[in-house]
Specification:
CATH superfamily of the largest domain: Medium-chain alcohol dehydrogenases, catalytic domain
CATH architecture of the largest domain: Alpha-Beta Complex
Helix content: 25-40%
Number of strands: 17
CATH class of the largest domain: Alpha Beta
Structural class: alpha/beta
Shape: globular
Length: 340
């Protein structure tokens, strides 16, 4: 089968390798259809990922058709599926608590083990979700949207009608904003780039926005009548932004860190305590989030045509992915078509 191999930072190769075979009773053999390109993939290509051994086949935003499935899995050959790429141990404390998304021994496809920039892949059946009613291209958007859906669910007690601020207008931030709106929140988007904010308004109708700068907090106070946002979601992957988010949170509100950084995060305790606010981490996504995303795409609540801005195939990806790693203007989500 064909596969795109990141042999080392800055070098992609289109190679031939043996198709994988099921090794365990619970394994599902999949024919990959489409794969979304994630920020993680760009970081791997650029040599910026801290937990990766090269060479590596990247790709964890997966749309596929079932080739072989275990009896009793509920999957049949030919079924279109989305894949949860977070392989959990099933035994640790988090897994026993029903939180496989933060398994203590988690392995991520395309990071800790080879991913789906290839024609076939083997995945445990528990990580394979039917995507009936979606197109193969739509199914490739489910995983990254599930990150935002999970972050909104992590906000917990925040009720419909609440004012929410999403910081960061990249793919994860946009997904978070869209699912915050589906949850009934009044959403404001904040970003450094006026171009991104204008595009979000044009594509998704996210008209309330704040441009990062000296007047950002004053703009937030105007929007919220001086009270702050009941929920703030930081999806920037930037430590300075994460630490600067507290003053935007209403007293009694919640701050959800959607992205992760290697840096230490610190903040002024008086800002934290006087609000009696909650600071919550959001990691990956769970089956409920994937199901919510699939249902939202199927119903038309999410328009994936507005999210997918760039397309390529295996041969084109060798030059397209390196270019898109640097040329971000107009780019929201790029998708590789694995099969013709």
């Amino acid at each position: 089968m064909k596969a795109i191999l990141c042999a080392e930072p800055g070098r992609l190769e289109l190679v031939e390798r043996a198709a994988p075979q099921p090794a365990k009773a619970e394994d599902v053999r999949l024919k990959v259809s489409h794969i979304g390109i994630c920020g993680t993939d760009y970081h791997i290509y650029e040599g910026k990922h801290p937990f990766l051994a090269y060479p590596r086949v990247m790709g964890h935003e997966i749309s596929a058709h079932v080739l072989e499935a275990p009896v009793g899995s509920g999957l049949e050959p030919g079924d279109l599926v989305a894949v949860n790429p977070y392989i959990a141990c099933g035994r640790c404390f988090a897994c026993r608590r029903g939180k496989p998304n933060c398994c203590m021994a988690i392995e991520v496809l395309g990071v800790h083990r080879d991913g789906a920039f290839c024609e076939e892949i083997i995945v445990p059946s528990v990580n394979v979700y039917p995507a009936k009613g979606l197109s193969p291209e739509q199914a490739a958007t489910v995983e990254f949207l599930a990150i935002g859906a999970h972050a909104v669910r992590r906000a917990g007690s925040v009720e419909p009608g609440a004012r929410a601020l999403v910081v960061g207008a990249g793919p994860i931030g946009l997904g978070t904003a869209l699912f915050a709106r589906i949850a009934g929140f009044k959403v404001t988007l904040m970003d450094l780039s006026e171009e991104r904010l204008a595009e979000a308004n044009g594509r998704f109708g996210l008209a309330s926005s704040i441009t990062v700068g000296p007047s950002a907090l004053d703009q937030a106070k105007t929007i919220t009548e001086g009270e702050g946002f009941e929920a703030v979601f930081d999806a920037t992957g930037n430590a300075a932004s994460m630490m600067a988010a507290l003053p935007f949170v209403a007293h009694g509100g919640v701050l959800v860190y959607v992205s992760v950084v290697k840096d230490d995060i610190s903040f002024a305790d008086p800002e934290f305590h006087k609000r009696e606010m909650s600071i919550i981490g959001s990691r990956n996504a769970q089956k409920a989030d994937f199901d919510h995303v699939i249902a939202s795409i199927r119903s038309g609540a999410i328009d994936t045509d507005q999210l997918i801005t760039h397309r390529t195939d295996f041969s084109g990806a060798i030059t397209d992915l390196p270019r898109w790693a640097h040329q971000k203007s107009g780019l929201i989500k790029a998708v590789i078509q694995a099969q013709g």
